[in-house]
Design brief:
single chain, 19 strands, alpha/beta, 36% helix, 451 residues
């Protein structure tokens, strides 16, 4: 197959109104009337499987029952007490694989109660600017805690600690708090600058300060935090991007999908953001879907997601895969990249080897295919940035931090949570639970010392 010799990458492929329409809120929020009707579909199960399926253990029947009774503020309290980032999780959680999959209405009617949309309805009502706060701080404890990382885990940890009367300083390397909620999610999922509005709500409880532009890189920094603060929480995420390890990866036009999404999220005028006419996204997770769909929304004519296994092995949910396809993204499976081809230093295509399963293992065949591309986004996962964790006394497993059930690391006085810890599923809602659990563990230890 011959490849184009002149890359077609440019900005302003669309009109101003097209950008506005394409990147509008995709969440389809419920109206009060719709929320009431949907809430009344709930059977209010006693041993609710939906609550068990929720990583943060939200009492789903309780909050839905309150919506049905017209007590939206009470519903939001039930949600946010369990999940301080309930607004974001309502937007990005794979509810179809968690609470809604467990809903008994699936068996009876083939359609679960729309728990995620009900959760968004309730939380959005009470976290809007100007609404009387739901929570107040406990009496000051005099304890000051450091949280490294202002992503979902760090923010949840800080909020729970502040509610218990502790002072918290959050340190983050970025210019804004929010972590992946601010820099790593599709714009249409968090329209209206929602990530920052949620951060403002979380900080409104008081007792939390944020220091941006600070990155944890040395043992000395960690030791200084330990000496200065009563406890330390690490919610540092997975800041390094995995490499493809194939020839041509250094070509212009080849970049990380995470970086692309972050740039898109921080670009005020989307018409200024260049995009290729033909885009290839390598990977099969949510980040790959977000990058692929947004490339299409920016005006790319052909967008291909290539994954090395079949659709059932993709970490992107079935709903996410269908979302990509309905937006014109072509999903191609059983393709492994073996080279990125280019002309004059710029990518022109990706050469893939077709994969098959032999003896229970995925192996490459000699059958190759070249997919033309003006831009290539790598979305094959992230890893913990190279840090002196072992030198600090923090054990790693599979490149991630080992923690106990309560989030304790092997270094006394230090807890961790979110994507940086071993054994997780890299879900926002799970990161929130990690932060909440660690905060409660810290609080218990600090108050026990005072007794």
């Amino acid at each position: 197959m011959s490849l184009p010799t002149v890359p077609d990458v440019k900005a302003a492929r669309l009109s101003a109104c097209q950008y506005t329409e394409r990147f509008a809120d995709a969440g389809n929020p419920l109206t009060p009337a719709q929320a009431l009707v949907e809430a009344e579909r709930c059977l209010y199960c006693h041993d609710a499987p939906c609550t068990t399926a929720c990583p943060t253990s939200i009492d789903v029947p309780s909050f839905i029952h309150r919506i049905a009774d017209g007590n939206v503020r009470g519903a939001a309290r039930a949600i946010l007490e369990a999940n301080p980032l309930g607004g974001m999780c309502a937007r990005v959680c794979p509810t179809e694989e968690l609470c809604e999959q467990a809903c008994v209405r699936n068996t009876e009617l083939g359609k679960p109660v729309e728990i995620g949309r009900l959760q968004r309805f309730a939380v959005d009502k009470v976290t809007a600017p100007g609404v009387t706060p739901l929570f107040t701080r406990a009496a000051p404890t005099g304890k000051h805690i450091a949280v490294v990382g202002a992503g979902p885990a760090g923010l949840a940890c800080a909020h729970v600690l502040a509610r218990h009367g502790h002072d918290v300083t959050i340190f983050d390397a970025h210019d804004k708090a929010g972590g992946l909620n601010e820099y790593g999610l599709a714009t249409y999922k968090t329209a209206g600058d929602f990530a920052q509005r949620e951060v403002a709500w979380l900080l409104s409880i008081g007792g939390i300060s944020v220091q941006t532009g600070w990155k944890l890189e040395t043992v000395a920094q960690l030791e200084e935090l330990k000496a200065k603060y009563a406890a330390v929480f690490l919610g540092v995420g997975m800041g390094a991007v995995n490499a493809l390890g194939v020839p041509g990866e250094e070509l212009s036009g080849v970049r990380s999908a995470v970086d692309f999404i972050a740039e898109l999220r921080q670009t005020k005028d989307l018409s200024c953001l260049p995009i290729g006419r033909r885009v290839v996204v390598i990977g099969g997770g949510m980040t790959a879907v977000d990058a692929a769909v947004q490339a299409k929304l920016l005006g790319a004519e052909e967008v291909t997601m290539a994954y090395r296994r079949g659709p059932e092995a993709m970490s992107a949910s079935k709903v996410e895969q269908e979302w990509a396809q309905t937006h014109g993204v072509s999903l191609r499976h059983w393709l492994a990249p073996i080279a990125i081809e280019g002309t004059d230093g710029h990518v022109t295509g990706v050469r893939f080897a077709r994969q098959v399963i032999e003896g229970g293992k995925v192996v490459a065949t000699k059958d190759e295919v070249v997919v033309p591309a003006d831009m290539v986004f790598k979305a094959i996962g992230q890893k913990l940035e190279v840090q002196p964790w072992p030198d600090a006394g923090i054990e790693l497993q599979g490149g991630r931090i080992v923690v106990s059930d309560t989030g304790r690391t092997t270094l006394p006085g230090v807890w961790a949570g979110g994507d940086c810890v071993a054994g997780g599923r890299d879900l926002t809602v799970e990161a929130v639970e990690h932060g909440k659990r660690a905060a409660l563990s810290m609080h218990a230890e600090l108050t026990a010392k005072q007794a």
